[in-house]
């Protein structure tokens, strides 16, 4: 069957289509790994593909194969690919085909059909609500220094203060953020 993937690569969406004659990819120029919700749409037909991120549309022709339809069978994977399918995903152009999404997804639909966690066949590692914190959105750094999110934020120890912010101010502000987060 043919292959379609939508992945996050280096903070940007990437749509990959393979109709059997080699993969074609479209990379979005919009960074979505910034801790805020984004509206994302992926549209594809045998002759073109389109990514829409926050109403910024990017598209390109596919020029892949002569077929006028996609032969899609099997499961739809959202947030990751089961282990025995990861090698195929990588071989067909998915740069993160061997990794699962670390983040949050909401309001998913395929065509006109809305999907929810109740529709999932496998829910390994999935939670019904978003449990990520993004302390950098609260601007914890001072004097023009830059905050860097490193994975899921639970404690102030997950940030390297020496390379990001003046240590005393950062530690104090992250401790406050951590205390606020644990009170929820």
UniProtKB/TrEMBL annotation:
Pfam families: Laminin_G_2. Residues 1-130 form the Laminin G domain. Gene3D superfamilies: 2.60.120.200. PROSITE patterns: LAM_G_DOMAIN (PS50025). SUPFAM superfamilies: Concanavalin A-like lectins/glucanases. This is Chondroitin sulfate proteoglycan 4-like 4. It comes from Homarus americanus (American lobster). The gene is Cspg4-L4.
């Amino acid at each position: 069957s043919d292959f379609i993937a939508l992945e996050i690569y280096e903070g940007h969406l990437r749509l990959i289509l393979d109709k059997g004659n080699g993969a074609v990819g479209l990379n979005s120029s919009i960074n979505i790994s910034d801790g805020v919700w984004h509206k994302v749409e992926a549209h594809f037909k045998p002759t073109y593909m389109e990514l829409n991120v926050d109403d910024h549309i990017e598209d390109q022709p596919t020029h892949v194969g002569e077929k006028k339809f996609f032969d899609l069978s099997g499961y739809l994977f959202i947030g990751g690919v089961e282990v025995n399918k990861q090698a195929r995903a990588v071989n067909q152009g998915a740069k993160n085909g061997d990794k699962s999404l670390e983040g949050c997804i909401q309001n998913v639909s395929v065509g006109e059909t809305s999907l929810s966690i109740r529709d999932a066949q496998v829910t390994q590692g999935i939670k019904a609500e978003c449990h990520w914190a993004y302390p950098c959105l609260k601007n914890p750094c001072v004097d023009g220094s830059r905050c860097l999110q490193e994975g899921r934020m639970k404690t102030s120890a997950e940030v390297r203060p020496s390379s990001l912010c003046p240590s005393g101010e950062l530690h104090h502000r992250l401790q406050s953020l951590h205390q606020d987060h644990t009170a929820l």
